[in-house]
Specification:
four-stranded antiparallel β-sheet; disordered N terminus; Butyryl-CoA Dehydrogenase, subunit A, domain 2; 386 residues; single chain; 15% strand; 3 domains; Butyryl-Coa Dehydrogenase, subunit A, domain 1; globular; Butyryl-CoA Dehydrogenase, subunit A, domain 3; alpha+beta; 11 helices
Length: 386
């Protein structure tokens, strides 16, 4: 497995290399030995998340004046790729929803009072975040959501349903998107809703194909009342504020996929070198060697494209086309890698006890979540061909 200090990734130097290495070391010692138990439990223990918070892992993108490191998208790319080496997609999703899918909304749009109240426990892992956007009838089409927030005294009354919400079963604070202007397609606002608020209910803990150790919920919000200071950002501008973070969300999904794909290739290369067959080893067969070589080349290309798109974002350059493209390509490449790696493990690869079997299941969500491949390709097409 390549390391952060390798010259093969020019973006991972100095502090970023240290962040990558520290994260890889953490998952090797604190995650991989226990991941199977977490898969059975359907959750990542809170004490593990608190240890990550204690190491400063939750504050990479938080400004220095608020207790973070004040780093940019390249740091998130490195962090997500390092997390991907855990081989447990559910663990990676649990962390990245907290740090890179939900937290940026608060950092970008929070008032000084909101930041003072919420950031300290979020950075330590005492408070775990989730982002409540997806609904039964509104996935990639965020503007189609139906949840409503209406004025009620000195606050808001929220009603609606959410689904596929990671961290909402065992988490503490959900950033909820709700329609506040019924007559405007994009008239959506964001609200900070603690999970112990009356009327907030987890109606179902979802049973997923992969990401088994992340908790994923269906939610009901029935007359949930929140005060005015729960409004996050500008009224009716929640859609645009959500779009602002989508490139980061797409990037970290690719990052965790790239990290996992590299581990899968390394595991399979080692397995094929050891597995005796046809008077030699599987790695002696040209068809297998060349297939693995092509998959390695694809992973290298996706990795480089991801860091380039992140580099553009850190310089304030519009990177929607580049990040949408790398999300579309990267998710498909990761799944091709997993397919071939399972194939070359033979019957053992099909067994539940096999690492590659779990990784293959975990990878399947990547072309769906955070913007389906088809939606991403439309974003590329609009910006390339008009």
């Amino acid at each position: 497995m390549s390391t952060a200090t390798s010259p093969r990734n020019a973006h991972l130097y100095d502090d970023l290399g240290a962040i990558y290495d520290q994260t890889v070391e953490f998952v090797a010692n604190e995650v991989i030995p226990h991941g199977d138990l977490w898969e059975e439990a359907g959750m990542v223990p809170r004490d593990v998340l608190k240890r990550m918070g204690g190491l400063g892992m939750f504050g990479l993108r938080v400004p220095v004046e608020h207790g973070g490191l004040g780093l940019g998208m390249v740091a998130s790319a490195a962090f997500s790729e390092a997390l991907g080496t855990s081989t447990y997609g559910g663990f990676e999703a649990t962390v990245l929803v907290h740090t890179d899918m939900a937290l940026p909304h608060l950092v970008n749009s929070g008032t000084p009072a909101q930041l003072e109240r919420w950031l300290p426990p979020i950075l330590t892992g005492e408070t775990i975040l989730s982002i409540g956007v997806t609904e039964p009838d509104a996935g990639s089409d965020v503007a189609g959501l139906r949840s409503r927030a209406t004025r009620d005294g000195d606050g808001w009354r929220i009603n609606g349903r959410k689904t596929f919400i990671t961290n909402a079963v065992h988490g503490d604070l959900v950033i909820v998107a709700a329609r506040t202007s019924p007559d405007e397609r994009y008239g959506i606002s964001m609200f900070l809703v603690p999970t112990d608020t009356p009327g907030f209910t987890v109606t179902s803990k979802l049973d997923k194909h992969g990401w088994r150790c992340s908790d994923t919920a269906e939610l009901a919000l029935d007359d949930v009342w929140v005060p005015d200071d729960a409004l996050l950002g500008t009224l009716h501008r929640g859609f645009h504020e959500t779009m602002r973070n989508f490139q980061n969300e797409r990037m970290v999904l690719v990052g965790m996929g790239v990290g996992a794909a590299q581990v899968a290739l390394d595991l399979t290369t080692s397995y094929c070198a050891d597995r005796k067959a046809f008077g030699g080893h599987l790695s002696d067969l040209g068809a297998i060697r060349q297939r693995l070589a092509m998959r390695q080349a694809e992973v290298d290309a996706v990795r480089a494209s991801m860091y380039h798109a992140a580099w553009l974002g850190d310089r304030g350059i519009d990177n929607v086309r580049e990040m949408s493209g790398v999300k579309a390509l990267g998710a498909e490449v990761v799944n091709r890698v997993m397919y071939d790696c399972l194939q070359f493990h033979g019957g053992m690869g099909y067994m539940r006890e096999s690492t590659i079997e779990r990784m293959t299941r975990d990878a399947r969500i990547l072309p769906i979540g955070g913007g389906a491949t088809e939606v991403m390709l439309e974003e590329v097409a609009k910006r390339s061909f008009g």
